[in-house]
Structure to design on (483 residues):
């Protein structure tokens, strides 16, 4: 009887020990995972020997809080390979960033995380090269309620409403206006969600003066000089107008939509509501440095301008040092959302998502890849980076006006970004650099409109005809150049 009881006790101890073994093994595996040194490979589109700026912006804080993970930055294209480009008779081929990226994503030692812009990420999604993040977000209960809605919607637009990437920051622009000028003119200032026609009408009413005393009602940029041919892209980008078709075989500018764009912008320039680009530059008669010289808004030369988020710093600095600058008056300013088209009332074209982070479908270290993305898009990281002068953090609770000022900061993120259309456009320009010259040719015809030599319809027809000739030549010789 005694032996029987002893045997049962032994069996019970053995059984208990056996049950405990997986728990012990689990703890050991978990502890081992926490202590083992691991490498996380992060891909960028372009890079070089010095990756310190990228590390400071994005990965240093992660490595500090995750001492067992070493970040390795891998550039799809080494910028040093571009040295000497343009200085030889035979031009080297511009590297294809997408193909280069695919190589480091699918090779023997694939990268884990990709940091890229919307067009690149959309292409990767279409080719099933990056992982869908929704399941990981659900599993970890990753909260997106604090992410700027327009940023999140822009991300979902890339993947048919599924999330394949997250971005900790975004860049943006808004419409700055001089409150004092509007008050003096007795005109109601602009408000959020105004159309381009609304803004142009306001600009027409604020335009006044002649010569050096002339004040523009509106400008696409804050700086003086430059043709509206390039800056007006902000006007038509949300309409998603194209210069040529997706195969770069036929011009698409000979259309009623393009005619409306050129008619509208050329008339504003001719009427001096916006800068025409040929105005004489301000000169300081004493030859001394003038910090507001060439700045249309700070110098009081334009009542409204489109400026990026970082422009706020210049306004704050100028107003703080107003007493040190001769003939400078503090600018009483505010911002509203960029103008919109009735056809696309929610799209402002002012938000740019250039630091989207996605996980390679072939990642060797997918767990740490998700940890990096999760950390980079966390409240802790947003708190650290919220003071940035150039980009805004994606978590809206950390977006605050600077220096205790009271301005409409929501104007910078209220509208949705423009979704990429032709994701092969960069690739086309890389394979056929002459396509840039097709675009540049348009400036010649637009200037003919500004000089009243041709109507917009005539000029666009001529550009279409000339452009088709150029495209035909580029089809036969992608490296062809034009006079």
């Amino acid at each position: 009887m005694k032996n029987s009881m002893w045997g049962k006790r032994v069996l019970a101890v053995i059984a208990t020990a056996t049950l405990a073994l997986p728990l012990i093994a689990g703890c050991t595996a978990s502890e081992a995972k926490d202590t083992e040194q691991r490498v996380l490979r992060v891909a960028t589109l372009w890079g070089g020997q010095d990756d310190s700026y990228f590390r400071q912006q994005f990965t240093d804080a992660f490595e500090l809080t995750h001492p067992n993970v070493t970040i390795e930055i891998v550039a799809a294209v080494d910028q040093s390979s571009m040295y000497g480009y343009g200085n030889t008779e035979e031009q080297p081929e511009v590297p294809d960033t997408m193909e280069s990226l695919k190589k480091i994503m699918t090779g023997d030692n694939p990268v884990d995380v990709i940091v890229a812009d919307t067009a690149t990420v959309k292409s990767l999604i279409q080719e099933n090269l990056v992982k869908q993040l929704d399941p990981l977000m659900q599993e970890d209960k990753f909260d997106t309620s604090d992410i700027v809605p327009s940023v999140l919607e822009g991300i979902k637009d890339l993947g048919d409403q599924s999330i394949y990437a997250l971005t900790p920051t975004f860049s943006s622009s808004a419409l700055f206006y001089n409150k004092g000028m509007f008050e003096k003119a007795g005109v109601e200032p602009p408000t959020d969600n105004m159309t381009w026609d609304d803004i142009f009408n306001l600009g027409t009413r604020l335009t006044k003066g002649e010569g050096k005393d002339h004040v523009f009602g509106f400008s696409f940029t804050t700086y003086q000089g430059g043709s509206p041919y390039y800056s007006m892209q902000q006007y038509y980008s949300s309409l998603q107008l194209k210069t040529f078709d997706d195969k770069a075989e036929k011009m698409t500018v000979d259309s009623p939509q393009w005619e409306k764009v050129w008619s509208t912008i050329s008339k504003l320039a001719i009427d001096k509501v916006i800068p025409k680009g040929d105005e004489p530059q301000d000169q300081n008669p004493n030859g001394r440095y003038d910090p507001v010289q060439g700045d249309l808004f700070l110098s009081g030369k334009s009542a409204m301008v489109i400026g990026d988020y970082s422009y706020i710093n210049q306004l704050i600095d100028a107003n703080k040092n107003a007493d040190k600058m001769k003939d400078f008056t503090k600018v009483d300013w505010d911002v509203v959302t960029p103008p919109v088209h009735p056809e696309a009332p929610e799209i402002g074209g002012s938000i740019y998502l250039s630091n989207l982070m996605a996980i390679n479908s072939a990642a060797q270290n997918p767990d740490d890849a998700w940890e990096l993305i999760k950390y980079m898009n966390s409240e802790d990281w947003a708190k650290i980076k919220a003071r940035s002068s150039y980009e805004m953090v994606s978590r809206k609770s950390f977006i605050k006006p600077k220096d205790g000022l009271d301005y409409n900061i929501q104007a910078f993120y209220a509208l949705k970004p423009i979704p990429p259309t032709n994701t092969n456009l960069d690739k086309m320009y890389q394979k056929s650099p002459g396509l840039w010259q097709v675009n540049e040719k348009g400036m010649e015809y637009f200037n003919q409109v500004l000089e009243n030599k041709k109507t917009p319809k005539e000029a666009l027809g001529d550009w279409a005809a000339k452009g088709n000739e150029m495209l035909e030549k580029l089809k036969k010789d992608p490296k062809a150049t034009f006079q």
Notes: Strands lie at 38-47, 69-78, 113-116, 169-170, 173-178, 304-308, 333-336, 356-359, 392-393.
